[in-house]
């Protein structure tokens, strides 16, 4: 009897095992279930919306910074094209505005005399002109052609002057300075370049400084062209 009971139990166990194996084999042979249908998700502003859906919606829209960068590049490229087009325009085809006539500037005019003296009228002066043989009173500043100071009848610091009085005749005054003074008016000023041929060809010619230092300085440059700035004070 006991053997019969065990035999039946074994049959049930075997039957149950065979059913389990068969069900597993059938499940493995059966095709997988079809995927759920794809549904388009509409973006919602509901706070209960899943985080993945919100991230997906954000990735679809282009960032604002990229949009601004693209707009800026398009604007710059447009400006370059316009500049290139403008450079191709013929400037001669454009109307040119009429320019007003410019006044001529005051040009310093020099005169060269027959003696070789080159003079410039700085101030014209007033009154009668000095003529040859007249006695004249004047101040002067003597410089070398390179601008170095030599002598002056006007003190550079105090402004005091020691004018010179000389006749415009005879052989007392240097010929170049005589040519400068002739034709001047009282209060007039002239600047002249006197060549050495009509300058201090003799140590006795005037005007000449009384002091030893200025006299020596003037005579040491007697063989050079000298620049005189003369102001006629009075025709005596």
From TrEMBL:
Record-level Gene Ontology MF annotations: peptidyl-prolyl cis-trans isomerase activity
Domain of life: Eukaryota
Catalytic activity entry: [protein]-peptidylproline (omega=180) = [protein]-peptidylproline (omega=0)
Location of the PPIase FKBP-type domain: 133-236
Leader sequence residues: none
Enzyme Commission number(s): 5.2.1.8
UniProt xrefs under InterPro entries: PPIase_dom_sf (IPR046357), PPIase_FKBP_dom (IPR001179)
SUPFAM superfamilies per UniProt: FKBP-like (SSF54534)
Keyword terms: Isomerase, Rotamase
Matches recorded under Gene3D superfamilies: 3.10.50.40
Region feature Disordered, mapped onto this chain: 25-45
Name of the protein in question: peptidylprolyl isomerase
Source species of the chain: Panicum virgatum (Blackwell switchgrass)
